[in-house]
Design brief:
The complex is a heterodimer. The relative contact order of chain A is 0.17. Chain A is built from ten helices and ten strands. The longest helix of chain A is centred in the middle third of the chain and has 14 residues. Chain A has a domain of about 170 residues: P-loop containing nucleotide triphosphate hydrolases (Rossmann fold, 3-Layer(aba) Sandwich), CATH 3.40.50.300. Chain A is globular, with a radius of gyration of 18 Å. Chain A is of the alpha/beta class. In chain A, strands 6-7-8-3-9-10 form a six-stranded mixed beta sheet, with helices on both faces. Chain B folds into three domains: about 45 residues; about 35 residues, no CATH class; about 250 residues, MetI-like fold (Orthogonal Bundle). Chain B has 14 helices and four strands. In chain B, the strands form two sheets. Chain B has a two-stranded antiparallel ribbon. Chain B has a two-stranded antiparallel sheet with strand order 2-3. The longest helix of chain B is centred in the N-terminal third of the chain and has 38 residues.
Chain lengths: ~280, ~350
């Protein structure tokens, strides 16, 4: 079925670091497989029987009008929606071949493997250094040298090292919105995830900061599989390999991005992409 | 309308203000009334301070800084046997003891000590419980439980202190006297080597009344628990959900994420604790009923003590002299300044900077 790129999700005191998936390995195995996934908030069905799969090292964009359920679906992939009272997921959602909603799944291991970047930059009110090392510290990394190396590595990957290196021990809240968001990406990378979920990562940013994040997404797909929710159709077209269009909780169409934006199958997709509704 | 009739050549209405009422408009009256109300509040505080400082003056003039550095509190003159330089009691020719008179003396250190220690005991008991309860309400309690429990906590914060005092007197005092304090003493006396001294230090030789510093501190802790819980809950509720999701998304466990949450809200939580401290320091009736009212500085929590407010409750009704009255008012002034500074710090921390919403 799949090559296991994920460590066992059963609770373990010290999970092994994920092996970095090979770039451009063909044929690409499906890393995330959703089958008939429905998400309920109480009695309301926010996601209606969605099936899709995401391959290793690709960028998938979720698009659709507000309230279509794309964020809800994204938040089900690292089970951060468990926080929401009355939220319930049915169907089958597998990552690396393991059902993440099975009983006995360790959420801590799952969330280290499936990182998340939020809509509004949410750095902790501590230093830049402490933000990046938060995840590794939780896992018990204590050695100064090791932490220093992680900080530099992750900040470089998130393309913010040059701006941050001279102020590592100053408050993260002193950075601009775009810098904060890249810091949050660096922070998410520090747990060495296999998947990075991004929930409208640029909606609070100006065009220049947005362009930087988009470049980053394209660069990062060598390291992680990325799912990005966006309201910006051009962004989806620029950064993603495949695009999924959600409408009223249903997955209307899911195809190669180039196909979706030039020759969509469904009329609704075409109307949304051309701006006739939404 | 008059202001519309005066137009310039372009047809734009004149912007010159015109009088709409006589002699004042409603707006002006309301503004005047609001200013007056604000001024009255300030004047009340000012006059309170002025009166207190004025009435305190005789005590300050007599004792100066000694008032807060000595602990002797003796409202009446005292007849004691006269002693010679060697410390021996002096007898006259008939073999009678010679009496000498000590003047009245006022030093507030013992009651300052009493207030400080009982407040600290109260905080040690109340703060961990309050933070735990607030975390429970915000992070664990199911929605159905949250409302009723929150209501109960706010209700407890509004119970009159005399009710806590009666409960303390009839439940807490006997409980301490019969069971808890004897157990403490028995454990203390079994400590190797220093056991006997420890037992003596705690006051085991003089008998237990149950009305002591420990009881006062415990009762204060119970009394300030609801207010600290309620404010902490509001402070924690104001922590942005993105912060909590941020920690969970990085693989934080429940406890790790809660710790980050407490850290984020630390300024507000400190404010909540300060509000509790201000209440503990100023609390009067309940403490007076259970603390034993003995003007002494005893290191053992099992010995009776006295706080500033309980001293006032006990003695202000019928002072022995003008100086006594002045000294009591000085104690009230110290208490006022202390509580005021706690409150100012707390409000600055809760409202001024950190996450919003005070009580």
């Amino acid at each position: 079925m799949t090559t296991a790129t994920l460590p066992d999700l059963a609770p373990s005191p010290m999970p092994a670091p994920a092996a970095l998936p090979q770039a451009d390995a063909a044929p690409r195995p499906a890393l995330i497989e959703a089958k008939n996934v429905s998400v309920f908030y109480g009695a309301f069905e926010a996601i209606k029987s969605v099936s899709l799969d995401v391959s290793t090292n690709e960028v998938v964009a979720f698009i659709g009008p507000s309230g279509c359920g794309k964020s809800t679906f994204l938040r089900s992939i690292n089970r951060i929606n468990d926080m929401v009272r009355g939220c319930r997921v049915t169907g089958e959602l597998k990552i690396g071949g393991q059902d993440i909603y099975a009983s006995g799944v360790d959420l801590v291991t799952l969330r280290r493997q499936v990182g998340m970047v939020f809509q509004k930059p949410n750095p902790f009110p501590t230093s830049i250094y402490a933000n990046v090392t938060y995840g590794p510290r939780l896992q018990g990394v204590k050695k100064r040298q090791e932490l220093d190396a992680i900080v530099e590595d992750c900040l470089r990957k998130a393309a913010i090292w040059d701006e941050a290196k001279d102020r590592l021990h100053t408050s993260a809240l002193g950075m601009s919105g775009g810098q904060q968001q890249r810091l949050c990406i660096a922070r998410a990378l520090a747990t060495r995830p296999s998947v990075l979920l991004m929930d409208e990562p640029c909606s609070a940013l100006d065009p220049i900061a947005t362009a930087k994040i988009e470049d980053l997404i394209v660069g990062l797909k060598k390291l992680v599989t990325i799912i990005v929710v966006t309201h910006n159709m051009h962004q989806a077209a620029r950064v993603s390999d495949r695009t999924a269009f959600f409408y009223l909780g249903k997955l209307i169409e899911y195809d190669e991005t180039s196909t979706m934006f030039t020759n969509p199958n469904q009329k609704q997709t075409e109307e949304y992409i051309t701006g006739r509704f939404g | 309308m008059s202001q519309l009739s005066a137009t310039d050549s372009a047809g734009f209405p004149s912007l010159t203000a015109t009088k709409r009422g006589f002699p004042f408009t409603g707006d002006q009256l309301l503004a005047l009334a609001a200013r007056g109300a604000g001024a009255v509040v300030l004047l009340m505080l000012l006059s309170l301070l002025t009166v207190l400082i004025h009435a305190t003056w005789p005590a300050i003039k007599t004792y100066g800084t000694q008032f807060v550095t000595t602990s002797e509190w003796r409202p009446n003159e005292l007849q004691v046997p006269k002693r010679n330089d060697a410390g021996k009691i002096v007898f006259d020719e008939d073999g009678e003891m010679v009496q000498t008179t000590l003047p009245a003396k006022f030093g507030a250190l013992a009651v300052i000590w009493g207030t400080a220690v009982s407040s600290v005991i109260a905080l040690v008991i109340a703060v961990p419980l309050a933070l735990g309860a607030a975390l429970f309400l915000i992070r664990i309690a199911p929605g159905k439980l949250r409302g009723p429990v929150s209501f109960l906590i706010e209700f407890l914060a509004a119970v009159p202190s005399i009710a806590y005092g009666i409960w303390g007197l009839f439940v807490l005092v006997p409980l301490l006297q019969k069971y808890i304090e004897p157990s403490i003493l028995s454990i203390a006396s079994h400590v190797p080597v220093v056991g006997e001294r420890f037992h003596h230090f705690l006051g085991g030789d003089t008998g237990l009344s149950g009305r002591d510093m420990l009881c006062g501190g415990l009762l204060l802790g119970i009394m300030i628990l609801p207010i600290i819980t309620a404010v902490s809950r509001d402070v924690l509720a104001a922590v942005p959900v993105q912060q909590i999701e941020g920690t969970l998304a990085l693989g934080a466990t429940w406890w790790q994420s809660a710790r980050q949450m407490l850290g984020y809200a630390k300024a507000g939580l400190f404010g909540a604790v300060m509000l509790g401290l201000a209440r503990a320091a100023g609390e009067t009736m309940a403490v007076t009923m259970v603390i034993g009212n003995n003007n002494q500085i005893a290191l053992s929590p099992l010995k009776p003590a006295q706080t500033m407010s309980s001293l006032l409750a006990n003695e202000f009704g019928n002072p022995e002299s003008d100086l006594h009255r002045s000294a009591l008012i000085a104690v009230a002034l110290i208490l006022l300044v202390m509580s005021l500074s706690f409150n100012v710090v707390a409000r600055y921390l809760v409202i001024g900077r950190g996450p919003r919403r005070a009580s």
